[in-house]
Design a protein that fits this description.
heterodimer, A: alpha+beta, Uridine Diphospho-n-acetylenolpyruvylglucosamine Reductase, domain 3, Alpha-Beta Plaits, 3 domains, four-stranded antiparallel β-sheet, globular, B: alpha+beta, Uridine Diphospho-n-acetylenolpyruvylglucosamine Reductase, domain 2, 4 domains, nine-stranded antiparallel β-sheet
Chain lengths: 419, 498
């Protein structure tokens, strides 16, 4: 009996099935070892809220991790939570909420976009995609909140990095590397995540304004002021009118700036900011805590793109380039909104083909930014580069991929051909 | 110090010293290649002065192209390279090897661009941490991470070590304040990770490089984000009758949702020593003393200070002073920042440890340190970045007494092992370097370490870039040295530490 057969005989796992649904780390290890030995590529899934992001790729088997869930250890006073990687984000949020805490990076909920209803996915998926919400410029991205992880590499070895304490410089910071790696380096099994207290109050200044240039000016001033905002978006007319809230006294294009913290400080800072921006009463609405939270939750959930058929692109730029890039993109039929105080553009293209895509990529690259194709039509998706990479970084990425997953069995090709 | 094993010296390289020097003089300006012992001497150690080793040669490149060509040459000729910034590191990360070319980056000392619109600064790596703040403070901005040696340490070194500081509790360490770097890999490849955008796409090489202690590449350019300076900064100085009370107070402040800009604790021994040294007005009768600082708008700071006051009183505080002016606030800090020289007065030598622990374990760990202090019969003073669980015990000993030194080393290793045991880490901000290398197996098993080494080999197949650092050579848990200071003399005695 070969080593491998011996191994297989010890388990109750049926290796002939097409979908593996393990519920213990030991089972995941056995599956990976089996696939490593047999060169079987795996598609790795949690709750499939974001699995349409990334390239299409061939995989013989699917690893459905959705049963590998649960909170392992939550220490509110130590500001961390340790969970199994496929724990639904919703479950984590509910648990944190009991202690008035939160994940400060407010991850996007892609459910509205892909399935028309909320599906915030698993924490493992959130980390693997590293898409942070509106607080990005203030609190960092998803990766900045990962204290440590345990995962299975492509040989079936259990590895870990980091821990549960905030300050830790012991060895390479692999928590950063696995964030945004779209499941191509390890199968995450455990994650330790930094949690933070919820701000006592949130207030949002909504400035009536349909013009991008003016909006970027407001946002730039706000983000460079000592009033310390934690969110800054611009919705043009066509999206602004979707926001119907009691305290919102106007419709149409709007610039929204969020101020959070202790109540009296929020009041003081909100007043100061409206003065610094020279705002008149008639152009300003102020959302109180509850409505402010609704507004930012809708932004985080990309609700303006609910059930969108196609062609959503995520464009990240130095804020100084945003105006020029959007002006250039307007020669195509687009609808967009701006987040991260001006650094992030979510743009829908009415028509998109390989030529247009290539032109847009050139524009964005010229302005030192990058594009990720979030939702595009299948025929275009088959040929397009979802992510963009230069030859040097491709070479390095290939080496890093092999150092974790030498036989390329984890989501092979999901990010780039050959990786 | 204990015997420190370094990678095997390559005698072929040693014998070719003159040829290598000549070749390198063909790549860069010949006066930037140093080869005689007098010239090499200043580079024999970094901030971990207990270890000294002269390099084979020192090169001081002036351009990225030169860095690339030198690395390419060394890679092709199997010459080891040790990169060095300001040389203030406390874990021996830039200590030379006998057969290495030490790459001193000191000539990369210019700020390239200040970009207020994108709120970032692009700089060469050997600009000091503090110089970045100085360059932007007239417009009301600053660079947040503030390692205590910020007056001298280089931003490139900060990236290599992922340096923290007092304010990392609220603003994060270097990794959280970095937007991009330009790096030269050992084969001479020049590339950029990140830039002026947030979250560059693809694998997070920026995150991987940060804190990699010069093992993966040489940093030639750094882009950091800058923040608007807070309007008001206030500090409170609080005395406690016991370490437990201070520890509970810290935990409760954090749990209440206040995130101070900095929160420090010193034990009685250090409070007294620093107060004697700097006349900071500390409550010397208290068993533990806390400095807690808040920044933000006036109302915000007032609200947090008020809350802190309530929590401190609830936890039996014996004294409480709130800074009335910026001068008074800086005076609160003066003693804390003079902890190193203050300890120099107390004992001929001391070693500074750097462990990280869960906040709630503070009292337990300090009790253990106190037990160990009795066991080894060596006095200890403790400073603690309490807000983020980063502990700096200072063990006092006499380096001229071999037995005292051996005991000190054992004591230090026991503390770090205990930090790991209670769920903490071997190093919070000083890095592993050569100092804690052999303790890595306390924190990681062979598979974990092997995964990290595989990454190293992927980018540097011949293991030529800063070898012998971070990862155990012995592959067993030997107990090696810590920051060692003799007669109060550090390499740069005037630089504030930890």
């Amino acid at each position: 009996m070969s080593m491998e057969e011996k191994q297989n005989s010890q388990t109750s796992l049926d290796f002939n099935q097409n979908i593996f649904k393990p519920s213990s780390r030991e089972e995941i290890v056995e599956i990976v070892k089996h696939c490593y030995n047999k060169n079987i590529p795996l598609e790795i899934n949690g709750l499939k809220s974001k699995n349409k992001i990334g390239r299409n790729f061939q995989s013989e088997k699917t690893l459905d991790l959705s049963d590998y869930k649960g909170i392992i250890d939550y220490k509110p006073e130590e500001l961390y939570i340790k969970v199994k990687a496929a724990t639904p984000l919703k479950e984590i949020m509910e648990e944190l909420n009991k202690n008035n805490q939160q994940l400060a990076f407010e991850p996007n909920d892609f459910g509205y976009l892909f399935s028309g209803e909320s599906n915030s996915g698993t924490i493992g998926g959130v980390v693997s995609c590293n898409f942070a919400g509106s607080r990005r410029f203030k609190v960092g991205s998803v990766r900045d909140h990962i204290l440590g992880f345990q995962g299975i590499n492509g040989k079936g070895e259990t590895i870990k990095s980091g821990g549960t304490v905030v300050k830790n410089v012991t060895g390479y910071d692999l928590s950063k590397l696995i964030s945004g790696s779209f499941g191509t380096l390890t199968i995450l099994t455990e994650l330790s995540i930094k949690v933070l207290p919820k701000p006592e109050t949130s207030k949002t200044l909504i400035i009536k304004n349909p013009h991008l240039k003016k909006a970027l000016d407001f946002l730039g001033k706000a983000l460079s002021s000592s009033t310390d905002p934690s969110g800054g978006v611009f919705y043009p007319d066509y999206f602004g009118k979707d926001f119907v809230l009691n305290d919102l006294t106007h419709d149409g294009g709007l610039t929204a700036i969020r101020i959070e913290g202790p109540t009296n400080s929020v009041d003081q800072r909100a007043n100061r900011l409206s003065k610094e921006l020279g705002l008149l009463d008639q152009e300003l609405s102020i959302l109180d805590n509850e409505q402010s939270n609704i507004f930012w939750s809708r932004t985080k959930n990309l609700e303006v793109f609910k059930s969108l058929k196609s062609n959503l692109l995520r464009i990240v730029l130095p804020v100084s380039e945003t105006l020029q890039v959007i002006q250039k993109l307007k020669s195509y039929d687009i609808k967009y909104f701006v987040d991260w105080g001006g650094s992030l553009i979510w743009a829908v293209f009415e028509t998109l083909n390989a030529k247009i895509l290539s032109d847009i990529k050139d524009i964005v690259k010229k302005h030192q930014g990058y594009i990720t194709l979030i939702k595009i039509e299948d025929d275009l998706k088959a040929s397009a580069d979802i992510f963009t990479i230069d030859p040097i970084k491709y070479k390095i990425s290939e080496k890093i991929k092999r150092s974790f997953d030498p036989k390329r069995i984890f989501n092979p090709g999901k990010m780039y051909t050959g990786i | 110090m204990s015997n420190l094993q370094m990678p095997k010296v390559d005698n072929v390289i040693m014998s070719k010293k003159d040829k290598i020097a000549t070749d390198l003089r063909g790549i860069i300006n010949s006066k930037n290649v140093l080869s005689n012992p007098d010239e090499l001497r200043p580079f024999e150690t970094d901030g971990l002065t207990a270890y000294r080793q002269m390099p084979l040669l020192v090169v001081m490149p002036e351009t990225v192209e030169e860095v690339s060509q030198i690395l390419k040459y060394c890679n092709e000729n199997k010459v080891k390279v040790v990169p060095r910034g300001a040389g203030t590191g406390l874990s021996g990360g830039s200590m030379p090897l006998e057969d290495c070319v030490l790459m001193a980056m000191g000539k990369f000392n210019k700020i390239i661009e200040i970009d207020y619109e994108n709120r970032c600064v692009v700089t060469q790596p050997c600009v000091t941490n503090l110089a970045i703040t100085h360059a932007v403070q007239d417009k009301g901005f600053y660079y947040a991470p503030d390692p205590s040696s910020q007056i001298a340490c280089s931003i490139g070194g900060n990236v290599a070590e992922n340096s923290g500081g007092v304010h990392s509790l609220k603003y994060g360490a270097t990794t959280n304040n970095l937007l991009g770097i330009q790096v030269v890999l050992m084969d001479g490849t020049v590339t950029k990770f990140g830039g002026k955008t947030m979250d560059a796409e693809g694998y997070d090489f920026l995150g991987l490089m940060t804190g990699s202690e010069g093992l993966l590449g040489v940093i030639t350019e750094v882009t950091v984000k800058i923040l608007k300076s807070p309007e008001v900064v206030k500090a409170a100085l609080v005395g406690f009758p016991s370490i437990e009370d201070a520890g509970n107070c810290v935990a409760e402040i954090i749990a209440e949702g206040c995130i101070p800009a900095g929160m420090e604790i010193m034990d009685k021994a250090l409070t007294k020593a620093t107060n004697d040294y700097s006349k900071a007005g500390y409550p010397t009768d208290a068993e533990a003393m806390m400095i807690v600082e808040f920044d933000g708008t006036e109302h915000e700071v007032e609200a947090y200070i008020q809350k802190t006051k309530e929590i401190a009183e609830k936890n039996n505080s014996s004294s409480l002073k709130i800074s009335k002016s910026n001068e008074e606030r800086l005076k609160f800090w003066a003693g804390r920042k003079a902890a190193f020289p203050a300890c120099g007065v107390l004992a001929p030598d001391y070693m500074c440890m750097d462990g990280s622990i869960p906040r709630g374990k503070l009292a337990e760990v300090l009790n253990e340190i106190s037990r160990l202090s009795k066991k080894y019969n060596l006095p200890v003073a403790n400073a603690f970045h309490a807000g983020d669980g980063n502990l700096h015990p200072l063990i006092m000993f006499d380096a001229n007494d071999k037995e005292s030194l051996r005991k000190c080393e054992e004591f230090g290793a026991d503390i770090l092992k205990y930090c790991v045991k209670v769920g903490g880490a071997l190093t919070g901000e000083h890095g592993v370097g050569i100092e804690k290398r052999e303790l890595m197996c306390e924190a990681f098993n062979d598979k974990d370490i092997q995964q990290q080494l595989t990454i190293k080999v992927a980018l540097d197949p011949n293991s030529l870039l800063n070898p012998g650092k971070v990862y155990p050579i012995l592959r067993k848990c030997a107990e090696e040295g810590r920051v060692h200071v003799h007669g109060g003399k550090t390499k740069f005695p005037d630089i504030p530490r930890f």
